[in-house]
Design a protein that fits this description.
The chain is mainly alpha-helical. Helix content is 63%, strand content 0%.
């Protein structure tokens, strides 16, 4: 028995592309709040370390931030993107994966639900949830 793929499964991809387009149209750089600036700084530090720049005791900072996000941004920045765009791409991808995960959870919790119903509920949850 093969897995049945539904065309609505591309919704997270369209969501990611939509976020990218809206961010570019509105010239949104994603840097709101102190944490965003610190993550961007850490991304630059990790990119510098990957490029062979010497480690400075003051470069990584004393903050207790998760290292995965700036590290993923630094890795993506090695593809030629600037650090700010790379970090935004990581955020867009994680938002799309969160949508996909939410749909898969709904699929497990209500196996008889149609794909259209699950994605409608996913969309309503996304639009009505506080950010």
């Amino acid at each position: 028995m093969t897995a049945k793929h539904h065309p609505l499964g591309v919704i997270p991809l369209f969501f990611i592309l939509g976020l990218a387009i809206v961010s570019r149209l509105l010239d949104f750089n994603g840097l709101y709040g102190q944490d965003a600036h610190e993550y961007l700084r850490l991304g630059h530090v990790y990119a510098g370390l990957m490029a062979g720049q010497p480690y400075s005791a003051h470069s990584a900072g004393d903050a207790e931030f998760a290292v995965g996000y700036p590290l993923a941004g630094a890795l993506l920045a090695r593809s030629g993107l600037d650090m700010r765009t790379a970090m935004q791409c990581i955020s867009w991808i994680s938002a799309g994966l969160a949508l996909l995960f939410f749909d898969r959870c709904l699929q497990v919790l209500s196996p008889g639900a149609r794909a259209q119903s699950r994605w409608m509920f996913t969309g309503l949850t996304l639009m009505l949830s506080p950010c």
